[in-house]
Amino acid sequence: MKQHPQTLGEFIISNQKDFEYSSGELTRLLNCIRLAAKVVNHEIRQAGLVDITGTIGNVNVQGEEQKKLDVFANNVFINALTNRNIVCGIVSEENEDFITISGANNAHRNKYVVVMDPLDGSSNIDVGVSVGTVFGIYRRVSPEGTPVTKEDFIQAGNLQVAAGYVIYGTSTILVYTTGNGVNGFTLNPAIGTYYLSHPNIRIPRRGHVYSINEGNYVHFPQGVKDYIKYCQREEDDRPYTSRYIGSMVSDIHRNLLQGGIYIYPKSNEREDGKLRLVYECNPVAFIVEQAGGVATDGHRRILDIKPTDIHQRVPLFAGSSEMVKEAMDFLK
Ligand code: AHG
Ligand code: MN
Ligand code: MN
């Protein structure tokens, strides 16, 4: 008889060593995230059928227009994490300040905080293109039993205890790491169960894809312009193929599986690039490194940057190790 692939629940149980210090709290936290992702997935799959596309008429703290689904996904994740009394605080792209969870359940006794981009690439939602969710998990540094502080959320990325993303694409895949490699689980929507579909993901050392918004070419630093021309030159294994979805999760996911480099550089218009260090770049950097790749801001390892602000931005060069190192040589 053909054996069915392991479910995410079975996988977590059989990998309890990943959670040795956590007394079940981290397991419950991952369970909570996988449930919230199912709810968001269900809603996304109805885009065009019910009134969930378009903007809400608000601008978030980043100065970006909020989509209805940005707000929906944010509420789903916050409610799930709050109601189950699992974490003591949350940082979200959609909330200006960090969220303190306390109240009747004494949640500030909990050990973990979550940072998240509840819906990444949301401009894609109205046009049928894949989007994602990104999350990182830290052990709090403030004393248990007291309300969280900003310090709990601005820890260096190398202190993450787990990180992951969900891609809502042709299928819905949850990819995460607890620091022991990277695994991907595909949702069977008919029964609401995730199955291990991408065990031990390793990113190839080189690939043939470069992913960057070339529309901004004129604004890029000379080193980035030179690297783009290098990618396009007919030489050795080049020219590379250009692939840019405009949803970081989707671009990273493709390059993780097939090899490639993802770049969101600084520019004349955006001194620190666009992507957010705490809840976009750090989780992705943890996953990319755990898969054998490299993630830098062009000079420094992303995971070693000490954030000063929960919404700060940083340039990102992430993907196949040899390609990222090559790109960094152009910036010297
Ligand atoms: P978000 O939808 O969470 O604001 O993130 C969008 C980000 C990222 O997902 C994507 O790679 C990038 O913005 C695309 O930006 P450009 O349109 O400037 O290329
Ligand atoms: Mn995003
Ligand atoms: Mn977002």
Give a written overview of the molecule.
- This protein is an alpha+beta fold.
- The chain is 27% helix and 23% strand.
- The chain has 7 helices and 15 strands.
- An 8-stranded mixed sheet has the order 4-3-5-6-7-8-9-10, sandwiched between helices. The protein has a 5-stranded mixed sheet with strand order 12-11-13-15-14, with helices on both faces. A two-stranded antiparallel sheet has the order 1-2.
- Helix 2 packs antiparallel against helix 3 and helix 4 crosses helix 7.
- The mean pLDDT is 93.
- The site of 2,5-anhydro-1,6-di-O-phosphono-D-glucitol (AHG) has 11 residues, from strand 5.
- One manganese (II) ion binds next to strand 5.
Looking at how many chains there are and whether they match, the oligomeric state comes to single chain
Structural class label? alpha+beta
CATH class of the largest domain: Alpha Beta
Give the radius of gyration: 19 Å
Describe the biggest sheet?
A: 8 strands, mixed
Proportion of residues in extended strands: 15-25%
CATH topology of the largest domain: Fructose-1,6-Bisphosphatase, Chain A, domain 1
Q: What is the CATH superfamily label of the largest domain?
A: Fructose-1,6-Bisphosphatase, subunit A, domain 1
Distance between the termini: 57 Å
Distinct compounds present: 2,5-anhydro-1,6-di-O-phosphono-D-glucitol, manganese (II) ion
In the CATH classification, which architecture of the largest domain applies? Answer: 2-Layer Sandwich
Q: What are the low-pLDDT stretches, counting only 5+ consecutive residues below 50?
A: none
Number of domains: 2
User: Order of strands in the sheet with the most strands?
Assistant: 4-3-5-6-7-8-9-10
**Could you tell me the number of beta strands?**
15
- The amount of helix comes to 25-40%
Distinct helical segment count = 7
